[in-house]
């Protein structure tokens, strides 16, 4: 930053209608809150660049360009940055600056394939970069970060067929999950009791699953769907078909899992975003427990799959039973989150 | 895990402190309109309700605190409304916001609080809210926390449930029933929490929580009651029958829990109106009761149900014609129950039958005893007692209807009652209690017993009291516990209870009458009970015969006045009466002679009144027999002051007085009979043991020779002085008279000589009197000389006393007697005689005063051994002088006021 | 001071109980004492041996005095009441009035006014209460006041019947019966009527007395029970 103060030139990037544009508040790792303007996929990025010399000095340059950049930063063994988008426009040919100059620019209908993202080991960001090339082959640059939201094409008309597919995915995942005994919840020492006979019922409207521990517990749970917009509500039910455990309470958690890199060189980070108690006490056979979890109040993000083959962020819904001896039994299944208008 | 009470208390206190603290923070936030922060504090205090470590009672305590604090929040939310619409949106948002709460308990409490606040606003999606809240409550499966949460829901929605139309009603009812079902499940589940050793504790805790469950049913009943439908076809009874009753009873049956079934059935019976109960009665009895927990005591539920019917019997919900049908429903349930479970404990049978009896007794048709008969028939045929306690249960069944008896007729109609009563015949104590209760009731009714069938109907219950009441006390068993009374010269102990039973039997005897009050029929009824019942225990007739005889005599008196000419009937009546008295006397001669003497005197007087002189005479002779056999030598216990003429004296002396007073009242004895009897009594009087008794008896006898108009009943014409008239009776009694006379004469020989001399004068005197009396048509027996003789005799006896003070006292008594004789017109007691007597008394007083003065000097000389004696004598003398002066004052008064005793010297 | 004089109950020998209205009047409460206006109860005997009646009587007022009647069993009463002695007469003084009481069976002739007067003289009392006759009465003689409260139960007794005209009526009826045998029904009515009259004349009216004594004056209230109604009469006596 000190560079700018030494610089003899002030670069100011102004986006059109910036004040009225929606912003997102992002908390930086340092705890600072940044307010960034939000752009959608395919939206033009339009603005002006203003160059001003300091204290009336004369500045010579070899040209001014503006770029729209999209890059991914991952941290596995070290930080690797890769660019997936780079558009550039020449704003001025080499000349001398005495008075402030204003250059409008516009990137028309830019395809912004990915959403902006700041995860633990991965980061995806968009920015407008202005470069003033000087004789000494030195450059004066200014970057302004944009925040990008993408909305899936089919959100408004999510058809039943897609839903169906998703369900299959979920159930496949859940089969994989059952081998994973110790997941995000550290103290789940008895989780291997969940050697179960889970099966999946395909249902047009929702997800229904059968889970159990032989002669000990048998539950069936049902969510209305497996794909949720971020403003959505998870609605479901849990049927207790056999209860021989002394259950103390039951929770629903939302776990976000970030995967960076590709095996074997892969880093995974899990974070429980939501913990939500849905049952207090032990039910008896035949009881049905309702599930309702409003999502919009939580800090969730859409499901990102294999973003530019660099990273993925998925969200899992985990049903956790805690018994009187504080043993935890859980069942995870992925849910697909997407951003909604 | 197990916490001590102290630990629990500490935890409770911490909870309370936290709630108060957080609640205060919430309040101040609300004051500053910082709603979100307020909600956070709200959530904080709600977290205390997640506690695991409190007893239900303690939990209730913090629940109440929380309840109030939540109330503050909802008041704020209602009060803060700007416009209806904005408030509605605001509350809808808030309803969602609070659902982010991570813990379910605070989340649901806040939801319900806000949801119900929302419901109170016009245009709110009430039904959706109801459905949502009740659905979400499923999340709390912990019994206590769940119960309280749902209770909170129930309390909060209490006045908000819609019932404007039938659809509303359906939804509200469904809501309440659903909450009820869930709460019941939780409540039942509580029983199985914790270690099995805590089962009793759990049971106790559950009992404390029962009202929470029941409150739903209460509200359910209210809402059905409050609902009015525009549609006339709507019937709340049918609604209950079709939509409510089946669902709730199904739940109650299905839960299979003893406590829940007991309590909830009770609630259903209590809270739903009687009309509803009638409609569902058949189902309740046969579909519900028969399917309840096998160990559950149906009798308690039946009792509640029956009590409900009984309490409502005033309201005429069951018409008289329907009463039998109602009973039959219960009865067929009972038979079904028997069939279903032949091993029902005897106590259960007893309790059930007890309820059925109570039900029947509450019926308006109080003369219908068919149902009771059915019960007693069944009971006497099917119940068998195996122990004493069983018999006590039978006792309970028997005792119940007695209070409902309205007439003797009841006992006739209840023919199976007696059969059942006989089932406890081995337990005489219980039988007696029943019998006593029956007696008490009959006495309360006070209806006369008119014929033998009525008498039998009652006396068969009295028989146990007559026969099985040994007067002898079981000392080993009762001594020191029961209050006892000594009788027969302290030789025998009886209990107060025994006496009370005898008293009751006597009172029943008082009820015996006859159709149209025919006295002769009443008499034959009295004879009947004697023979058939009373003399079944001769030992106890002493307690009942006086009553029987007295009543018999009274009826004989009535009969005598009613049929004065039917002499044969009257005579045979008295003969039968004598047989009864004889039986009494021969069995209880030793200790009851005095009583029998009085009985005889009464009989003699009645016979005299009825002009049956030979009977009367005969009875008087019997009196003397008793006197001589048993009373002559008997003494009164304890000290009798010889100077006291006002008390009685020995039993012998009192007997003489009673005889005198009886004879004084006679008016129809033949003259010779009368004279013989009065001579005899005077003679007996003069032979009493003590001088003072002799003296007094003789001066009192003087009255027998001088009848006085005042004592004569108006219009009565005495026949004693009419010797010309033939006696009304046959020859036979006459002969008896002759015999008696001879006997009397032989005794007369013992008389003193001067008395014999007097006999001659008597005849003259009598003739003179007869002449006088004929004109007035009332002939009084008067013989002044004989009177004088008696007084003279008594004076002699008085004079012969060794105790000069007693002599003096007796002299003054005789003076008083003489004054009366004089006033009543006996010329022989004239002023000279009286003056002589007064002088005699004065002389005696002077002598005694002199003597006392001398004695006083002796005392002063140091002879103090007799001091006490001296003082006593001084008192006696003083008393005598006082009495004498009063007598003189009386004479003075009479002189002044009445002009009597003019020549009597009183100075 | 209010004193109740009550006599000749004859329970159970000749009656079942007092008229309920009397009982209610005399013991309005269930407390002990059951009547807070009456200070003194005097029973003139012939109560016979009803334990319940004895307890009831003795619980009316703070003091209860009983004398023995002709038909009373002294041994029983002593034990039933837990007292040492059942005397034949008694005496007490209130203000200026000396009051004596006795059943009177030992007085010869019983009920004779002069004999009673003589008794009062010897006892040295201004008022004499006596019983035994079942007929309520009160009169002044020789400057003294004589009170007989009658029978509280209206128990029958065996004295001469009250009404004197009955005999003639009865004979008239008898004559009529002989003459008109064909008119049987009418005669039956008359028969019943006659029987009724005979019973009437041999029945006593339930009664008791209350003595209100103050200074030298005794106001006597006579309570009688006729046709289910309680009647009260008042007589005043002042000692000269």
UniProtKB/TrEMBL annotation, chain A:
A GO BP term, please?
A: intracellular protein transport
UniProt xrefs under Pfam families: Vps26
Compositional bias per record (Basic and acidic residues), positions renumbered to this chain:
169-180
Question: For the region Disordered, what residue ranges are annotated?
Answer: 165-200
Q: Which superkingdom heads the taxonomic lineage of this protein's source?
A: Eukaryota
Q: Which family does it belong to?
A: Belongs to the VPS26 family.
What is the protein name given in its UniProt record?
Vacuolar protein sorting-associated protein 26
User: What organism does the record attribute this protein to?
Assistant: Candida verbasci
TrEMBL record, chain B:
Composition-biased stretches, type Acidic residues, lie in 852-868
Q: Which InterPro entries match?
A: Vps35, Vps35_C
Q: Where is this region: Disordered?
A: 724-775, 849-868
Q: Where in the cell is it found?
A: Membrane
Q: What membrane topology does the UniProt entry give? A: Peripheral membrane protein
Spell out the Basic and acidic residues composition-biased ranges.
724-751, 759-769
Q: Please state what the protein is called.
A: Vacuolar protein sorting-associated protein 35
From TrEMBL, chain C:
Region Disordered, residue ranges: 157-189
Positions with biased composition (Basic and acidic residues): 177-189
Family matches, as Pfam families: Metallophos_2 (PF12850)
Keyword field:
Protein transport, Transport
Q: According to its record, what are the GO cellular component terms?
A: cytosol; retromer complex
Q: Where are its TM segments located?
A: none
All copies of the Calcineurin-like phosphoesterase domain together span 35-155
The record's annotation in NCBIfam families points to: yfcE
The entry's protein name is Vacuolar protein sorting-associated protein 29
Protein source organism? Candida verbasci
Upper lineage is:
Eukaryota, Fungi, Dikarya, Ascomycota, Saccharomycotina
């Amino acid at each position: 930053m000190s560079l700018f103060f030494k610089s003899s030139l002030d670069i100011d990037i102004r986006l059109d209608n910036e004040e009225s544009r929606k912003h997102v508040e992002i908390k930086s790792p340092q705890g600072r809150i940044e307010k960034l303007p939000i752009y959608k996929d395919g939206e033009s990025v339009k603005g002006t660049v203003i160059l001003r010399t300091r204290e009336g000095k004369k500045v010579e340059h070899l040209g001014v360009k503006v770029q729209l950049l999209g890059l991914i930063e991952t941290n596995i063994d070290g930080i690797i940055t890769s660019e997936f988008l780079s558009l550039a426009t020449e704003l001025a040919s080499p000349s001398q600056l005495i008075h402030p100059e204003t250059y409008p620019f516009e990137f028309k209908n830019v395809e912004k394939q990915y959403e902006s993202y700041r995860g633990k080991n991965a980061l995806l960001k968009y920015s407008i970069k202005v470069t003033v090339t000087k004789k000494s082959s030195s450059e004066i640059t200014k970057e302004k970060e944009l925040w990008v939201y993408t909305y899936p094409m089919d959100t408004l008309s999510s058809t039943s067929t897609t839903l169906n597919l998703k369900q299959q995915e979920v159930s496949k995942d859940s089969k994989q999950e059952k081998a994973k005994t110790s997941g995000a919840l550290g103290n789940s020492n008895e989780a291997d009791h969940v050697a179960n006979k889970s099966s999946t019922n395909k249902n047009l409207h929702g997800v229904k699953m059968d889970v159990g521990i032989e002669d000990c517990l048998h539950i069936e749970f049902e969510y209305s769907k497996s794909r949720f917009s971020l403003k959505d509500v998870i609605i479901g039910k849990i049927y207790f078909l056999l209860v021989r455990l002394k259950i103390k309470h039951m929770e629903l958690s939302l776990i976000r899992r970030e995967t960076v890199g590709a095996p074997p060189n892969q880093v995974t980070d899990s974070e429980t975003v939501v913990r939500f108690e849905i049952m207090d006490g032990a039910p008896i056979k035949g009881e049905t427990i309702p599930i309702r979890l409003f999502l919009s109040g939580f800090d969730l993000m859409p499901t990102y799959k294999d973003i530019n083959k660099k990273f993925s962020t998925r969200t899992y819904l985990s049903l956790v039973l805690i018994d009187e001896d504080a043993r935890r039994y859980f069942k995870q299944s992925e849910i697909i989150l997407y951003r909604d208008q | 895990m197990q916490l001590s009470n102290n630990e629990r208390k500490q935890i409770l206190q911490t909870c309370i402190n936290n709630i108060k603290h957080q609640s205060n923070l919430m309040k101040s936030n609300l004051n500053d309109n910082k709603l979100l922060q307020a909600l956070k504090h709200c959530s904080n205090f709600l977290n205390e309700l997640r506690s695991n470590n409190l007893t239900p009672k303690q939990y209730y305590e913090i629940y109440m605190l929380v309840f109030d604090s939540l109330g503050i929040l909802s008041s704020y939310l209602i009060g803060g409304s700007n416009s209806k619409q904005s408030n509605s949106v605001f509350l809808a948002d808030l309803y969602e916001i609070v659902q982010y709460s991570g813990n379910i308990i605070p989340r649901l409490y806040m939801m319900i609080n806000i949801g119900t606040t929302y419901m109170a606003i016009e245009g709110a999606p009430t039904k959706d809210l109801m459905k949502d809240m009740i659905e979400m409550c499923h999340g709390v499966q912990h019994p206590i926390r769940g119960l309280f949460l749902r209770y909170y829901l129930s309390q909060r929605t209490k006045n908000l449930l819609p019932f404007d139309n039938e659809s509303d009603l359906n939804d509200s009812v469904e809501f309440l029933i659903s909450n009820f079902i869930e709460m019941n499940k939780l409540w039942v589940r509580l029983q199985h929490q914790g270690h099995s050793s805590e089962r009793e504790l759990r049971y106790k805790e559950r009992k404390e929580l029962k009202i929470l469950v029941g409150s739903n049913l209460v509200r359910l009943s209210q809402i059905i009651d409050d609902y009015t439908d525009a549609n006339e076809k709507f019937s709340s009874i049918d609604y209950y029958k079709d939509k409510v009753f089946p669902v709730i009873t199904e739940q109650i049956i299905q839960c299979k829990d003893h406590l829940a079934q007991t309590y909830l059935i009770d609630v259903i019976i209590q809270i739903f109106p009687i009309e509803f109960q009638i409609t569902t009665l058949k189902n309740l009895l046969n579909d519900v009761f028969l399917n309840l927990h096998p160990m559950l005591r149906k009798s308690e539920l039946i009792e509640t149900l029956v009590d409900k019917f009984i309490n409502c019997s005033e309201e005429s919900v069951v018409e008289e014609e329907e009463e039998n049908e109602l009973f039959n429903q219960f009865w067929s349930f009972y038979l079904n129950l028997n069939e279903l479970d032949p091993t029902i404990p005897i106590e259960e049978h007893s309790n059930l039958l007890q309820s059925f009896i109570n039900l029947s007794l509450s019926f308006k048709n109080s003369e219908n005893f068919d149902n009771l008969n059915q019960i007693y028939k069944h009971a006497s045929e099917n119940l068998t007692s195996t122990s004493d306690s069983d018999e006590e249960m039978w006792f309970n069944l028997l005792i119940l209807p007695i209070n409902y008896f309205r007439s003797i007729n009841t006992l006739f109609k209840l023919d199976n009652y007696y059969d059942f009563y006989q089932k406890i015949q081995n337990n005489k104590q219980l039988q007696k209690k029943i019998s006593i209760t029956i007696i008490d009731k009959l006495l309360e009714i006070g209806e006369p017993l008119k014929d033998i069938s009525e008498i039998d109907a009652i006396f068969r219950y009295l028989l146990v009291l007559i026969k099985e009441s040994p007067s002898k006390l079981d000392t080993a068993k009762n001594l020191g516990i029961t209050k006892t009374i000594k009788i027969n010269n302290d030789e025998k102990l009886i209990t107060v209870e025994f006496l009370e039973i005898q008293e009751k039997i006597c009172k029943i005897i008082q009820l015996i009458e006859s159709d149209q009050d025919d006295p002769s029929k009443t008499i034959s009824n009295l004879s009947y009970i004697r023979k058939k019942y009373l003399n079944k225990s001769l030992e106890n007739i002493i307690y009942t015969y006086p009553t029987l005889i007295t009543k018999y005599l009274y009826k004989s008196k009535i009969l005598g006045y009613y049929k004065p000419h039917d002499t044969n009937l009257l005579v045979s009546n008295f003969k039968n009466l004598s047989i009864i008295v004889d039986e009494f006397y021969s069995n209880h001669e030793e200790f009851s002679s005095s009583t029998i003497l009085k009985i005889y005197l009464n009989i003699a007087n009645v016979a005299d009144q009825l002009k049956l002189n030979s009977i009367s005479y005969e009875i008087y002779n019997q009196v003397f027999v008793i006197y001589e056999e048993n009373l002559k030598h008997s003494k009164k216990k304890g000290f009798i002051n010889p100077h006291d003429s006002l008390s009685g004296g020995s039993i012998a002396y009192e007997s003489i007085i009673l005889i005198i007073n009886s004879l004084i009242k006679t008016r129809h004895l033949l003259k010779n009979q009368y004279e013989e009897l009065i001579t005899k009594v005077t003679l007996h009087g003069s032979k009493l043991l003590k001088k003072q008794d002799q003296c007094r008896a003789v001066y009192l006898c003087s009255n027998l020779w001088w009848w006085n108009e005042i004592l004569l009943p108006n219009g009565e014409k005495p026949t004693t002085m009419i010797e010309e008239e033939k006696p009304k009776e046959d020859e036979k009694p006459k002969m008896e008279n002759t015999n008696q006379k001879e006997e009397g004469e032989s005794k007369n020989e013992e008389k003193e000589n001067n008395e014999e001399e007097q006999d001659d004068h008597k005849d003259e005197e009598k003739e003179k009197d007869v002449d006088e009396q004929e004109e007035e048509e009332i002939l009084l027996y008067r013989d002044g000389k004989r009177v004088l003789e008696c007084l003279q005799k008594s004076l002699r006896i008085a004079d012969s006393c060794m105790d000069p003070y007693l002599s003096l006292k007796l002299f003054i008594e005789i003076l008083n007697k003489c004054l009366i004789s004089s006033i009543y017109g006996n010329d022989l007691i004239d002023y000279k005689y009286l003056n002589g007597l007064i002088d005699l008394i004065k002389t005696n007083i002077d002598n005694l005063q002199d003597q006392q003065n001398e004695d006083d000097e002796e005392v002063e000389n140091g002879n103090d051994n007799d001091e006490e004696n001296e003082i006593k004598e001084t008192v006696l003398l003083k008393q005598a002088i006082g009495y004498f002066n009063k007598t003189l004052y009386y004479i003075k008064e009479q002189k002044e006021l009445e002009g009597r005793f003019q020549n009597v010297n009183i100075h | 001071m209010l004193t109740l004089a009550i006599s000749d109950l004859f329970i159970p020998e000749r009656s079942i109980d007092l008229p309920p209205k009397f009982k209610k009047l005399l013991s309005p409460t269930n407390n002990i004492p059951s009547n807070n206006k009456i200070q003194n109860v005097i029973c003139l005997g012939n109560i016979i041996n009803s334990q319940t009646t004895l307890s009831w009587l003795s619980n009316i007022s703070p003091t209860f005095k009983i004398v023995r009647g002709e038909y009373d069993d002294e041994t029983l009463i002593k034990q039933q009441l837990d007292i040492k002695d059942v005397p034949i007469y008694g005496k007490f003084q209130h203000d200026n009035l000396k009051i004596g009481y006795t059943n009177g069976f030992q007085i010869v002739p019983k009920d004779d006014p002069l004999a009673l007067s003589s008794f009062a003289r010897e006892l040295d009392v201004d008022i004499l209460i006596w019983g035994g006759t079942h007929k309520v009465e009160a009169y002044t003689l020789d400057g003294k006041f004589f009170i007989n409260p009658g029978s509280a139960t209206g128990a029958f007794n065996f004295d001469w019947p009250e009404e004197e005209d009955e005999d003639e009526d009865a004979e008239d009826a008898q004559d009529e019966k002989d003459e008109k045998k064909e008119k049987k029904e009418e005669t039956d009515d008359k028969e019943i009527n006659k029987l009724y009259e005979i019973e009437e004349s041999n029945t006593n009216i339930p009664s008791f007395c209350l003595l209100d004594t103050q200074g030298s004056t005794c106001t006597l209230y006579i309570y009688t029970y006729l046709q289910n109604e309680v009647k009260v009469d008042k007589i005043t006596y002042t000692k000269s």
